[in-house]
Specification:
The complex is a heterodimer of chains A (403) and B (232). Chain A has 403 residues and is of the alpha+beta class. In chain A, 57% of the residues lie in helices and 19% in strands. Chain A has 13 helices and twelve strands. Chain B has a single domain, classed as Rossmann fold (3-Layer(aba) Sandwich). The longest helix of chain B is centred in the last third of the chain and has 16 residues, at 172-187. The chains are: A alpha+beta (403), B alpha/beta (232).
């Protein structure tokens, strides 16, 4: 018998029991949808991590203030990190190529009648290089402007778009940050938004200006240090820790009042969260594919019993064992492939939704679709074999007598 | 054509040895019309299963077209059933979801016969149902269903047609029509074996083998056989 006729018969019998077919396929649908979304989210997260690393700059060590601890209760940030600390690091630590002290706050920025709520980041002249910003127009501020606390500003691409809308060339114009005038001396090329933060929605001003004239705060929020080589990062971290402990007069038995962290480290922990999510989905996928397969087996056994008489007729008029077996195998494979296909579509939908909500791209590869498809065929064959074999081995005399 | 030599079938039911058929011997020639008669439990169903290659005898030999059926495995038996035997059942046994034409075509598909569609349609026309080919069994009357079943039995040009109580589920008028059809087919040269418990139906045949308690008690030609011979 031609495989085409067997397919026709399988599809006809599945159509005759539409609801049952759908419920049988449901386990496979859920399993395959999880596989597809799992792989696409995982792949998306991996690429997001890579692009984040390149956006934040490479080989970066960050020093942040610690938390105040009184009787083991944490209470706010310690205001210990100073501009002098940054200077000392720049002067005393070897194997580094740049230091950027930073203070930052959200602020209202105004140009003419246009407003923008952006992050104002006070920093040093090295920052653009450390954080991988490229100048679009004008220039970044220089050492003199930092030393003399000048009111100059460099605008990120999003700020330029919000304030000027592409009609005016910003360099040379004056903007107001919380009411104070600043001269725009440069703009940066867009880096592209991350899921939780837009690095282009920022205004950069000299750190001294930010501390003394804008925010009125003595301490720093971050000091970024760029290592020359990624291998030296641990050494540099140890040296910075020793230097800052000395400068802050911390006794040997006390904890640091600051944190030294490598950017790769916290990206790593972020990647681990994505991985955990991936394992979770993988677990769901494995379990529901398993349950789905057992569901197919169960329904196929019911179907074989229901159709005992039909099988008897087929055997009587000359169907061989393998033709009966093939007929039922094709039926279970059609169910599981149907479930697989719907699952693929739902998986695509889920990864779309995740990428919309999470703001990062998810990647559905052809490989993952083929994998899911192959899985569903394999499940159909594996779990369909026992019922199909049972049908093929029916005794025709008993089968014909079956009511 | 058919030769049964000491055909026996027995089962073990618990610790009881049941003999369903004992030492049945007969020959059936090509073109014959034989009725196998007997009460229920007489062994006629067992004999029919053996003749239809659905079952193997425990003793004796059954030669179908000079092939000893006992030497065949399950798949070879399936091929014999497909090519040499046509079944007509009491309850029609058509596939409910397939059209009349597809039901008739099925043996050709299993036999991998080319041009199956056209051949099936031709056979349906032979039983007078050419215009009902697209109908499903539940859209046909009892008589029409049995004619579809006969067409399915005929479609592979089998050596014998085995009909098991073919009129059992039909009213007497339709039953008679079916018997007329068998008479016509027989006249066209088809070999028929009819299993029945109704003497009236058996009278259509030309020879009656009567079974009782698993053994043959008589094997005689009917009045009809003589008539046709004289008509010739």
């Amino acid at each position: 018998m031609l495989i085409f006729d067997l397919f026709k018969m399988a599809i006809r019998s599945l159509i005759a029991n539409k609801m049952r077919t759908f419920l049988t396929a449901l386990g496979i649908i859920i399993g395959v949808a999880s596989v597809i979304s799992m792989i696409s989210i995982g792949e998306g997260a991996r690429r997001e991590t890579l692009s984040t690393i390149s956006k934040f700059g490479t080989n970066i060590i960050s020093v942040r203030p610690g938390e105040k601890k009184s009787r083991h209760v944490r209470s706010g940030q310690v205001e210990t990190l100073t501009f002098e600390d940054a200077r000392a690091i720049e002067k005393n630590i070897s194997l580094i190529t740049g230091v950027a002290a930073q203070v930052y706050k959200g602020a209202q920025v105004k140009f003419g009648n246009k407003n923008s709520s952006s992050t104002v980041r006070g920093t040093g002249r090295e920052y653009a290089r450390l954080a991988n910003y490229t100048m679009d127009h004008g220039r970044f501020f220089n050492i003199q402007e930092v030393n003399t606390s000048r009111r100059v500003a460099v605008l990120g691409a999003t700020v330029v778009k919000n304030l000027y809308g592409g009609t005016v060339e910003p360099v040379g114009e004056t903007i107001k940050i919380n009411g104070s005038n600043y001269l725009v001396i440069g703009t940066t090329v867009a880096k592209g938004a991350l899921s939780w933060f837009d690095p282009d929605d920022q205004i950069f001003i000299p750190v001294t200006t930010a501390q003394k004239r804008q925010f009125g705060q003595k301490y720093l929020q971050t000091i970024d240090i760029q290592a020359e080589n990624i291998e030296d990062i641990e050494t540099i971290k140890t040296n910075i820790e020793a230097l800052l402990r000395r400068r802050h007069n911390i006794r040997d038995d006390k904890e640091n009042d600051f944190h030294v962290q490598n950017s790769a480290e916290w990206l790593n922990s972020w990647g681990n969260a994505a991985k955990t999510f991936q394992y979770l989905l993988g677990g769901i996928a494995a379990i529901s594919l398993m349950v789905g397969g057992i569901g197919i087996m169960n329904i196929m056994l019911v179907s074989v019993t229901e159709r005992t008489r039909e099988i008897g007729i087929r055997i009587a008029i000359g169907a061989r064992k393998r033709e009966i077996r093939k007929q039922f195998l094709i039926e279970s494979v059609v169910v599981s492939v149907l479930g697989g296909s719907i699952g693929i579509l739902i998986g695509l939908g889920i990864s779309r939704i995740v990428s919309k909500m999470g703001g990062w791209e998810t990647i559905v590869s052809l490989n993952s679709i083929l994998l899911a498809f192959g899985f569903s065929v394999a499940i159909g064959v594996f779990f369909g074999f026992y019922p199909a074999n049972k049908a093929a081995n029916l005794n025709p005399i008993d089968a014909l007598r079956y009511e | 054509m058919i030769e049964a030599k000491g055909l026996s079938k027995s089962y073990q039911l618990g610790n009881q040895h049941v003999v369903a058929l004992a030492n049945a011997s007969f020959r059936i020639q090509e073109g014959e019309w034989v009725a196998i008669m007997g009460q229920s439990g007489s062994g006629k169903s067992t004999l029919m299963n053996l003749l239809g290659c659905l079952d193997q005898p425990t003793e004796g030999t059954y030669l179908l077209d000079d092939i000893d059926v006992k030497t065949l495995d399950a798949d070879a038996l399936a091929e014999v059933r497909n090519g040499k035997i046509g079944f007509v059942f009491q309850s029609f046994n058509l596939l409910a979801r397939s059209s009349a034409l597809e039901n008739v075509e099925l043996p050709l598909l299993y036999g991998r016969v080319p041009d199956s569609r056209a051949k099936a349609l031709k056979t349906l026309e032979r039983v007078g149902l050419g215009n009902r080919a697209r109908h499903k069994p539940n859209e046909l009357s009892g008589g029409e269903r049995q004619r579809v079943a006969i067409a399915r039995a005929l479609v592979n040009n089998p050596s014998i047609i085995l009909a098991d109580e073919p009129t059992g589920n039909l009213d007497s008028k339709t039953g008679e029509e079916i018997m007329q059809m068998f008479t016509r087919l027989h006249a066209e040269g088809v070999t028929l074996i009819l299993v029945t418990h109704e003497a009236q139906v058996a009278q259509y045949a030309h020879r009656i083998i009567t079974l009782k308690d698993g053994g043959i008690i008589s094997d005689q030609p009917t009045a009809r056989a003589g008539k046709e011979v004289t008509a010739c």
